[in-house]
Amino acid sequence: MKFLTRGLCALIFTLFFQSQLSAEYLYKDEVVHRIGFEDQVEKLGAELYEKTGIALRLVMLKSLPENTDMVSYEKNLLSTFKEPTVLLAFSENDMEIDIQVNDTSLYKYFDRRQVLSPVASAVPAFVMAVTYAKSWESFNELRTNYGGSILPLIAGKTKEGQAVGQYAGSMFNGYIDIAQQIATAKGVVLQNDPGDANQEVLFYVKLVFYGFVIYGIVMYVRRKIYLRRYKNEHE
Hints:
- This protein is an alpha/beta fold.
- It has a single domain (about 1-235), classed as Diaminopimelate Epimerase, Chain A, domain 1, CATH 3.10.310.50.
- Helices cover about 60% and strands about 10% of the residues.
- Strands 1-2-3-4 form a four-stranded mixed sheet, with helices on both faces.
- A hairpin with a 4-residue loop joins β3 (about 85-90) and β4 (about 95-100).
């Protein structure tokens, strides 16, 4: 009986330990729960760490702990890691996404502002700058803030029941973006890098946005022409 008890404890310990190892880079996932998603993050994260010495970890929460904001949560978690760590975090119910590091020197290896930009490319950034800027400084700030690899995807409309897939795709896209930038800065090539797959997704996001912009311009011009003709006919 003691042998069985010891054996059971050993089995539980082994399974628990392996579980911890397998979740090293997808550090916490309360949202997606898909083996394929976990495998992709783990392979890319493990290779990145092996070649650069930088751990890129992804945390996907259902909700932030009570009375805790995102930055505080990230800093508390980062304090538990000894190796250089970049933490990409997402909270579904709070709809918050952020990136923090446990060593500020790590920011030189990737562009945090670009990854978290709400727009994908220069044209929508310029449109936002023209629409919302209140000064020349804010105009330049908005105009140059583009290239986002998460928010333009996660903010898109989705069909019922597809939100989890959208979260997974958006966050993995951002994870790839950061990993690529770190690898490039370190002068290494990642074999598990999906390549230009994320760029193809962003291309379609840009295409849809440009379609709306062009449609809006056409409708505006048609409206102006109609009003001018209407005014001339009734004078």
